[in-house]
Automatic annotation (TrEMBL), chain B:
PANTHER family: ABC TRANSPORTER I FAMILY MEMBER 17. It comes from Halorutilus salinus. Residues 1-39 are annotated as: Disordered. This is Phosphate ABC transporter ATP-binding protein PstB. GO terms for biological process: phosphate ion transmembrane transport. Residues 50-304 form the ABC transporter domain. SMART domains: AAA.
Length: 718, 309, 367
């Protein structure tokens, strides 16, 4: 029965044929990269290389590829190797080759000056070639037109008929096309075609050949696009990093605190799951994680060296001071994050009476400390003059918990292990708050927490003061923070509430359809239109001038559909079983929503909010219209300090006003626009620095939201 | 067909004698200790179109199929039965390498089709799947017309040329296509129901019709073996009985391997039955009558009599 | 929905009767609270529309108080009312945008007539001569969008195919999130690079003036690319796997399966992605604003010359603000440009969403 089939089940691919095809693909790829490299100046084109103009080498490569491709076709046709070509090279190949030859011959005719007649001839030739491709066997039809193009172009470059110095004026475009564009472009085309054909030949033509060719082309295109985008990021980083980091001074203690964070997180993971886990990609990513851990440990060791020898390390204009004190704000952030981690890691429960007593005691102590810190923050320092109470209490608590920690390990008591760590971290949080509130350092012999001064980051902490004197983005950064904060406060409750209504209460009606359309419409409305809306509606009603408040509202309106869409999806994906289970227990609808639906949907909502914030934080166009502040403001908007609460007889009796919110201001993206309009030149580096900070802010929002979505999704799957 | 049956009967009788006293049922432990050679002996080696040897499949760390060896005879219906999760569908998908689609799957051992290992390097999957067709659990017609569905395979393989290019080159195979569509639909017992609406969208057919359309689509590429993965499980009883009749009809011309968890169905339609039990083992493989009336293994008897599974 | 559309009178009658039933069934306190909230919210909205800010604040304050009281007394009902009002805000927002843009755009339309949008003779832009035709800007938008789509559509579809069908699992898990992150690069950053690096480079290379429409289209296309990839990938992966298996099982290759089953089945979704990309490209403002020359004339020597520079609708708005005062015809012309953008781009967005939802429903996959 199997004799009834034309082709054999197992293809004994000829290794020689495959090797030549693979070589064609490989050389094409290299030529492709090199041609792109000439645009960036990485690969020479007009220069002399070993006695010849580099362009001739491109020609030589094309000629070689042309011969190889033609050879592949002939070898298959005469039956030297076993291949499985179709009867026809197919419509796609025919159209591509026809167009290719039509354009090539047309441009050549144009260049030699026979214009319109030449184009007509080229059209005839193109159509003829397309037909020939269609009717000839696939191995010939898909190789010869490509080989012809490669040989023709290659010969032009080798012979020097087209050199980097050649140029063609186009009257229709009022533009000049120089050889430095034509040669790489033709090489890219040739390389793509050669690679395509080589990939087809590799699989012996036929359906598998076409698949190979198509996949190669698609992968190459994706590779190209992704590398352009990555290159773009790298370029901004390269240009901006020196500006941003200029004159950065950081204390070793603070740096150590920041390095400690990843070290703790990574080593905890490595300790719990083993250094190398899983197979394939999981294994690779665990290696990467381990490498990161090693880097951070090395960094920490370097910092330790700085302590021990008391030398400042500097790299470029970045300096690492050997001060051992940790800034209060960094200490607060790091111990806060570690607290969250410790809470997530705490799986032990107090079982015996004694353990419960210990736990209750610890909770009491922490509560006392926190209460003390709050009193200091809002009322006054606790203690008699000369003897501050809080630092002593903190030190005592820290000492006790350290002893408890060591003891629990030494005596191998499993229970309170996480507990002392938690208490210790709370103590350091409280100490940091104490330092912030009173301004006095909590330190012994220079080791401890100080109010500030351990980090001096001019670019982020200073306003810019005129051209060339000092550059900084502090006012713009605060502008962005206030605007984003206001937009979130305005839009997120609205969006989440609307999502609750749409998923839980609403039945399918004209109203919900209308809301659907409106949401999608708002989502795709251009940002500049939002700006115009702000100008027409919001500005006249709120202070009659561009302001922070107007920007907050406009960006809030933009955030609305983003958060609404993601929140709705998150709520829709909460399984109905949850709702049914809750309803079956006799819980009312609203209580079900509040205690089942919203918590279950929270991760999705938060992810959506972060993503939306990332989008509006980089938004510029509406700010041009409704923020429109000075180009380089000298100070940050004092939103916190200018809240004004008054009571009066007129309704609504309590009058809250905040003049700072009604003023114009700047924001990071707006600042970048200001740099451009102010005229580049001396300030260009300022622009790159601002762009880098902006990218950092926006992309970290996106990265966090993508990561959190993956995390929650994985958690759901478990 | 009858010849084959006689031969296999002799073969299986031999097997029973070879494996000792038929009255003493092998217990669980003994059946697991059976060596590979004994399995081969146990199988229907004569006229085997598919011969599986020592097949192991892993999904990541999960060992889904363990040391499967069996021969599948030509032009007959072989049923694979077992509780869900026993690996019978996995086994079926190994035969035409549809498991390649699952990224984490790893296959060890050999599957010989007409004496050629389908897992060797250089196997042309296009050719393999042309010869070993497959019908899935749920009907999966393409959102195209009935005609386009049937002619899909032949067109992709270049056996039938249609469309703009073909007519330009004067190679339009309209008549061949009409013949093929009619023949395939007739073989799948669907022609009488749809011959007046070949250009309607296939998604408009009923579930049972869709499934027979999928069978017709599979027949149109002229396979030797048809693999069916619980082809009737998504259908109502009337449609199911039509599919069952069709399978028996097809076995005159094709080799059919059908996965089912419906034991009555296996008993009705199959010539030989392989019983997979939880953990991915092939516990017993013999003529269907023998499996259902007088199985060797206690576990198989428990399963087919409904005591377990 | 369509039934209610066809028969509005009976729908209204039904709604009224439903309201009456509701009013009879609920207790008096709830009713009072609900009515108070609705009244205060409506009052705040109306006085805001009438530019009576202090009145609006008072109403809003009263609304807050009444909601607070009602939250304490009747939480469930209040929650429903509040979330309903929040939902209504979404509808109101789009309505307000449309109404206010159109109101501001009316004067220039009265002044210029159809020449505002249509290329009649003398359809020029000249503020000194009082001519405010948007034809040159519309044409600039068309040209840049065309170039952008030529970049974004094929590359975007190729990227979507790569992610959903071709890439192995490990590469997919890396490429997909990076595409999403790349979608977040702010347009002003593209603009800055375009302004400082690309404009001079391309100007040098082709001896053309900076800000050629071709280059701007290229940059905008690159920016729209991640959106097209994401949406098209969504569409492709909503094609059920069983359909692809059916094709593979008759011996078709992966590529044939993509060409003949996956792409045709998700064709409407893919076209929705491209439409959305068109919308993104048309509405893109900042990158174009900082790169373009703002000449406000049709390109020369032919109108198709993509190496020349002109103005687009968005760049007109972004660059002119600051030179105009409210009430002028120029000001009104900016809003006319906004209305044009709103109608086309928002319309494209809505249409593409509807297409996509239809497709998903038809395939019976997720959604």
């Amino acid at each position: 029965m199997s004799e009834a089939y034309e082709r054999s089940l197992v293809v004994e691919g000829s290794s020689a044929y495959e090797r030549v095809s693979a070589a064609v693909v490989g050389v094409s790829f290299v030529a492709f990269l090199a041609a792109i490299g000439t645009f960036f100046g990485w690969v020479p084109l007009a220069e002399n290389v070993a006695g010849f103009v580099a362009a001739r080498y491109f020609g030589a490569v094309l000629v070689a590829l042309g011969f190889a491709v033609a050879g592949l076709g002939v070898a298959s046709r005469v039956g030297m190797f076993e291949t499985a070509p179709d009867d026809s090279a197919g419509l796609v190949a025919a159209v591509v080759f026809g167009m290719l030859w039509f354009l090539t011959l047309g441009f050549v005719a144009q260049a030699v000056g026979i214009g319109a007649v030449g184009w007509i001839g080229a059209l005839a030739a193109g159509v003829g070639l397309a037909y020939a491709t269609l009717v000839s066997s696939e191995d010939i039809g898909s190789t010869f037109p490509v080989a012809g193009f490669l040989l023709f172009m290659g010969a032009l470059f080798v012979a020097g008929a087209v050199t980097p110095e050649s140029a063609w004026m186009s009257e229709a475009f009022e533009a000049t096309f120089p050889g430095t564009v034509v040669i790489p472009t033709a090489t890219i085309m040739g390389a793509l075609l050669g690679g395509w054909t080589g990939a087809k030949a590799y699989a012996g033509y036929g359906t598998r050949g076409r698949q190979n060719g198509a996949f190669l082309l698609i992968s190459l295109v994706v590779f190209l696009v992704l590398s352009i985008l990555v290159l773009l990021l790298a370029f901004v980083f390269e240009r901006g990093v020196a500006v941003v980091l200029e004159n950065l001074i950081i204390g070793a203690g603070t740096a150590l605190a920041f390095v400690a964070l990843p070290v703790v997180l990574l080593s905890r993971r490595a300790y719990r799951r083993g250094i190398v886990t899983g197979t394939g990609t999981d294994a690779v990513s665990s290696y990467v994680r381990f490498a990161f851990l090693a880097v951070f440990v090395l960094l920490a060791a370097g910092l330790g060296y700085a302590f021990a020898t008391a030398t400042s390390l500097s790299y470029g204009s970045v300096t690492l001071e050997p001060t051992t004190a940790v800034g209060a704000l960094p200490a607060l952030v790091v111990s806060g994050v570690l607290l969250l981690v410790a809470r997530a890691a705490d799986t032990s429960t107090a079982e015996t009476d004694r353990e419960q007593l210990v736990a209750r005691l610890a909770r009491l102590v922490v509560a006392g400390l926190v209460a003390g810190a709050l009193v200091e923050l809002f009322v006054a320092e606790i203690g008699v003059p000369g003897v501050p109470f809080m630092p002593i209490a903190v030190a005592a608590v820290a000492a006790v918990s350290l002893v408890a920690l060591v003891a629990s390990y030494a005596r191998d008591v499993p229970y309170p292990r996480v507990l002392p760590v938690t208490v210790l971290l709370w103590a350091s949080v409280v100490a940091a708050v104490h330092v912030l509130a009173t301004g006095d350092a909590v330190a012994v012999a220079g080791v401890g927490i100080v109010e500030g001064g351990t980090v001096n980051w001019p670019f982020l902490m200073n306003p810019s003061q005129g051209l060339g004197i000092q550059i900084g983005v502090m006012p713009a950064m605060f502008g962005t923070i206030w605007i984003v904060l206001g937009a979130v406060v305005f839009a997120v409750p609205l969006a989440v509430g609307a999502a609750v209504y749409l998923t839980e209460y609403a039945e399918d009606s004209l109203f919900t359809r209308g809301v659907d359309v409106a949401t999608n419409g708002l989502w795709s409305t251009p940002s500049i239109v939002f700006g115009l809306f702000g100008l027409a509606f919001i500005v006249p009603r709120f202070g009659d001038s561009p302001s922070i408040l107007a920007s907050q509202l406009v960006l809030g309106f933009m955030l609305l559909p983003l958060v609404l869409i993601t929140s709705r999806e998150a709520m829709k994906s909460v399984p109905d079983e949850y709702r049914d289970a809750s309803a079956a227990l006799g819980v009312s609808k609203w209580r079900t929503i509040r205690s089942v639906v919203v918590p279950a949907a929270m991760p999705g909502v938060i992810t959506g909010v972060i993503l939306g914030v990332g989008r509006i934080a980089g938004e510029t166009a509406p700010l041009l219209l409704v923020l429109n502040g000075p180009n380089f403001p000298g100070s940050a908007p004092g939103v916190l300090s200018s809240f004004d609460v008054g009571f009066g007889l007129q309704p609504p009796f309590i009058h809250v006003s905040n003049p700072a919110l009604l003023e114009r201001a700047s924001a990071l993206p707006y600042q970048l626009y200001a740099v451009i309009t102010a005229g580049v030149g001396a300030e260009e580096s300022f622009g790159w620095g601002t762009a880098l900070v902006l990218l950092g802010v926006v992309l970290s929002f996106f990265a966090v939201s993508v990561a959190s979505r993956r995390y929650f999704r994985r958690k759901l799957q478990q | 067909m009858t010849e084959t049956t006689t031969e296999t009967e002799e073969q299986s009788t031999g097997t029973s004698v070879g494996s000792g006293d038929t009255d003493t049922r092998t217990t669980k432990g003994e059946s697991e200790e059976r060596t590979r050679d004994e399995w081969r002996e146990y199988s229907f080696s004569e006229d085997a179109i598919l011969s599986v040897d020592d097949l192991n499949v892993y999904y990541g760390d999960d060992h889904a199929l363990k040391d499967i060896s069996m021969d599948i005879p030509e032009k007959s219906v072989t049923a694979l039965i077992g509780p869900s999760g026993c690996g019978k569908s996995t086994f079926l998908r190994c035969l035409n390498r549809m498991n390649d689609r699952i990224k984490s799957a790893r296959v060890e051992g050999t599957v010989e089709y007409n004496g050629e290992d389908v897992y060797q390097d250089g196997t042309n999957l296009v050719e393999l799947r042309k010869r070993i067709g497959m019908v899935f659990q749920a009907p999966n017609p393409f959102p195209k017309s009935i005609r386009d569905n049937i002619a899909y395979g032949p067109r992709k393989h270049g056996d039938i040329n249609r469309g703009f290019v073909a007519s330009l080159l004067g190679r339009d195979d309209k008549e061949e296509e009409d013949e093929l569509v009619e023949e395939s639909l007739r073989k799948a017992a669907l022609w009488d129901e749809v011959n007046d609406r070949l250009d309607d969208n296939a998604l408009g057919l009923s579930g049972g019709q869709q499934q027979r359309l999928c069978i017709a689509r599979c027949l149109a590429v002229n396979p030797e073996v048809i693999l069916m993965d619980e082809p009737a499980s998504a259908l109502d009883p009337v449609a199911t009985s039509k599919i069952e009749d069709l399978i028996e009809e097809l076995a005159k011309e094709y080799t059919v391997v059908v996965v089912t968890h419906n034991m009555q169905q296996a008993a009705r339609i199959s010539d030989q039955t392989a019983v997979f039990l939880t953990g991915g083992e092939l516990v017993e493989y013999d003529e269907t009558d023998k499996i259902f009336e007088n199985p060797e293994s206690q576990r198989v008897e428990d399963y087919v009599t409904g005591k377990f599974g | 929905m369509f039934e209610t559309l066809r028969n509005p009178r009976s729908a209204i009658r039904e709604a009224v009767s439903r309201l009456r039933v509701l009013a009879e069934e609920t207790d008096r306190l709830t009713l009072v609270l609900v009515v108070a909230q609705a009244f205060f919210a409506g009052g705040a909205f109306v006085s805001l529309l009438a530019t009576r800010s202090s009145l609006a604040t008072s109403f809003f304050f009263l609304f807050l108080v009444s909601s607070g009281v009602s939250w304490v007394l009747r939480q469930a009902v209040t929650a429903k009312i509040l979330t309903f009002m929040m939902t209504a805000t979404v509808l109101a927002t789009l309505g307000l945008i449309v109404v206010f843009l159109v109101i501001e755009a009316i004067p220039v339309f009265r002044h210029t007539g159809l020449e505002l949008f249509l290329p009649f003779d003398g359809a020029n832009w000249s503020t000194s001569a009082g001519e405010f035709s948007l034809v040159a800007m519309i044409w600039g938008t068309v040209l840049t969008t065309l170039v952008a789509v030529v970049v974004a559509a094929p590359f975007g579809i190729a990227g979507a195919l790569f992610i959903s069908e071709i890439a192995p699992e490990w590469l997919k898990s890396f490429v997909k999130p990076s595409v999403e992150i790349l979608a977040g690069i702010p347009s002003i950053v593209y603009g800055f690079i375009g302004f400082t690096i690309l404009n001079p480079y391309v100007g040098d290379l082709f001896s053309v003036s900076p800000g050629s429409l071709f280059l701007i289209g290229l940059v905008i296309g690159l920016m729209a690319l991640p959106t097209v990839v994401s949406v098209a990938e969504d569409a492709l992966s909503s094609v059920p796997g069983s359909m692809k298996n059916g094709s593979l099982a008759v011996g078709a290759t992966d590529w044939q399966t993509m060409k003949s089953v996956t792409v045709p089945a998700s064709f409407s979704g893919i076209s929705a992605a491209v439409l959305l990309g068109v919308g993104r490209a048309m509405g893109e403002t900042m990158a174009a604003t900082v790169m373009i020359s703002h000449t406000r004339q049709l390109p020369e020597p032919t109108v198709y010359n993509v190496f020349d520079s002109t103005e687009t609708l968005t760049t007109l708005i972004a660059s002119s603000y600051g030179h105009v005062t409210p009430g002028e015809l120029f000001w009104s012309a900016l809003f006319a440009a906004g209305v044009f953008l709103l109608v086309i781009v928002t319309g494209l967005g809505i249409v593409s969403q509807i297409i996509e939802q239809r497709m998903k429903r038809k395939l019976g996959g997720k959604e």
